[in-house]
Write a structure and sequence with these properties.
With 347 residues, this protein is α/β, with parallel strands linked by helices. 47% of the residues lie in helices and 10% in strands.
Length: 347
């Protein structure tokens, strides 16, 4: 383990009752890439040696379950052999409590809530615990219905939309610790009428102190500064064509009538990145896509590699088509349409 992982292991071990003086729950909120999976597997290994691991319920998004198994086999070969992935399985006649680790997706917990809720789990781990950030969602309610003695939450983004995300996760981790949702919002979340920044800062400081021993968060920029190459970020301004400007202004005029902010923001993005789809029977040049192909030509000529992120599927289609045409090369894509079992293989 790297130094920060040794610290994380010791911290998690306390919350898993491998050492004295800690609670039976904690949130490891390390930045992505710091090895949350390895740290938790190390704790599981220590619990297994003491005969205190199983049954353990490990819940993660479908795309990450394969990674958990791969990491377990890589770093602890043969140790976690007594495990089962219950997605899509007929559980009739299967005694899940006899396994050290039961792996499940959030959707499977929702569907199999009754079977899983009958078991007293010695340890329950939520990977990407922000998946239960909505208190009223069915999968959140299913997670809350599980009977677990010790609980660990893992997430690189504990707060995505609002402070209520944090409350919802701790409603599972430590029920009642932050009071009711209404009390939490009244105490910590700013309202439209609150303009006192000092008061809000004091409230957040109070929240940090109350959760200080229960959340461990580190960032790559500080923990891996000696291990990672420098990150270089370049921002490029690409002027829109006159036709795009007209389209952009028209969308803003429509907003004055419809007052639909999310629809308008998405349309503005498309006007910049994919103007063709907004105009029927008319070809509009795409400066951003032209610029991208120029950059990829430089990468291609240097024999190097590139990863391109595109937010929606039709834009991915357009980029793929242009790359195929420019370089006569098949482009691999990873998105929600790709089967989870193929994603790691594709990478």
């Amino acid at each position: 383990l790297l130094p920060h992982q040794e610290i994380g292991f010791a911290w998690l071990a306390g919350h898993a009752r491998l050492s004295e003086g800690a609670t039976d729950h904690g949130m490891l909120a390390d930045d992505m890439g710091l090895g949350k999976t390895l740290q938790v597997l190390s704790v599981m290994s220590a619990l297994l040696e003491r005969g205190e691991l199983g049954p353990c319920l490990l819940v993660a998004p479908v795309s990450l379950l394969q990674n958990w198994e791969a990491e377990a086999d890589r770093f602890f070969p043969g140790r976690f052999h007594n495990r089962i992935d219950i997605r899509g399985r007929d559980l009739k006649g299967i005694d899940l409590s006899s396994y050290d680790i039961v792996l499940s997706s959030y959707a499977t917990v929702r569907r199999r809530q009754i079977e899983l809720g009958r078991i007293r789990w010695q340890l329950m781990v939520l990977d990407e615990s922000h998946e239960i950030r909505t208190p009223t969602a069915l999968q959140t309610r299913a997670i809350l219905a599980m009977d677990a003695e010790r609980r660990l939450a893992l997430t690189g983004t504990p707060i995505q939309n609002s402070l209520s995300d944090l409350w919802s996760q701790f409603d599972w981790l430590a029920p009642g610790l932050l009071g009711s949702l209404r009390e939490f919002r009244e105490t910590y979340q700013p309202t439209k009428s609150s303009h006192d920044e000092t008061e809000q800062t004091e409230r957040l400081d109070t929240l940090r102190r109350s959760l200080g021993s229960r959340i461990l968060r580190r960032m790559k920029s500080s923990e891996l500064a000696h291990y990672l190459p420098a990150k270089h970020e370049h921002r490029t301004r690409i002027p829109m064509l006159p036709a795009q400007v007209e389209l952009y202004d028209a969308i803003l005029r429509d907003f004055q009538i419809e007052r639909s902010p999310f629809k308008t923001l998405h349309a503005l993005q498309r006007a910049c990145a994919e103007p063709d789809v907004l105009v029927l029977d008319e070809y509009l040049a795409n400066p951003k896509l032209d610029w991208l192909i120029e950059q990829l030509q430089v990468v291609h000529d240097a024999g190097e590699k590139a990863v391109v992120f595109a937010e929606w599927y039709s834009l991915q289609d357009a980029i793929t088509y242009r790359i195929n045409a420019a370089f006569d090369r098949v482009v691999e894509r990873i998105n929600g349409t790709v089967d989870a079992g193929r994603r790691l293989q594709t990478v």
